[in-house]
TrEMBL record:
Record GO terms (molecular function): iron ion binding; iron-sulfur cluster binding
SUPFAM superfamilies: 4Fe-4S ferredoxins
Database matches in Pfam families: Fer4_ETF_QO (PF05187)
Domain (4Fe-4S ferredoxin-type) ranges: 57-87
Family: To ferredoxins from P.putida and C.tartarivorum, ferredoxin I from A.vinelandii, ferredoxin II from D.desulfuricans.
Protein name: Ferredoxin-like protein
Organism annotation: Bradyrhizobium quebecense
Entry keyword annotation includes Iron: yes
Assigned keywords, A-Z: Electron transport, Iron, Iron-sulfur, Metal-binding, Nitrogen fixation, Transport
Function: Could be a 3Fe-4S cluster-containing protein.
Length: 98
């Protein structure tokens, strides 16, 4: 039995294009020493894998590949762990079908 998915998310994300608003990220992680449970959850739930642990065990975000799905916003904005806003006009993800 073949258990490989017929379409991988990574393959679809490849078709997207991004215009990065350098110096003005639309998602920011609140400064912390030890990540909250919500921040740690973002490491697993972000479909674009924008969240990573740095060498100090803190959660960082790189918004370059963000598809603006809002998942992290639902989980971690109410707790104050992140600040989330839409990118400025003309910046952010450009969805393509493929
Ligand atoms: S909006 Fe979605 S893709 Fe963007 S950082 Fe949050 S979870 Fe990841």
């Amino acid at each position: 039995m073949n258990v490989e998915p017929s379409v991988r998310v990574e393959d679809k994300l490849y078709y997207n294009r991004y215009l990065v608003d350098i110096g003005q990220p639309h998602v920011k992680v609140r400064a912390h020493t030890t990540p909250s449970a919500e921040l740690l959850a973002l490491l697993k739930v972000c479909p674009a894998r924008c969240y990573e642990l740095n060498d100090n065990g803190q959660v960082e975000v790189t918004v370059d590949g963000c598809i603006e799905c809002g998942t992290c916003r639902v989980i971690a904005e109410p707790t104050g762990d992140i600040q989330w806003s839409h990118p400025r006009g003309g910046y952010g993800v450009l969805f393509k079908f493929g």
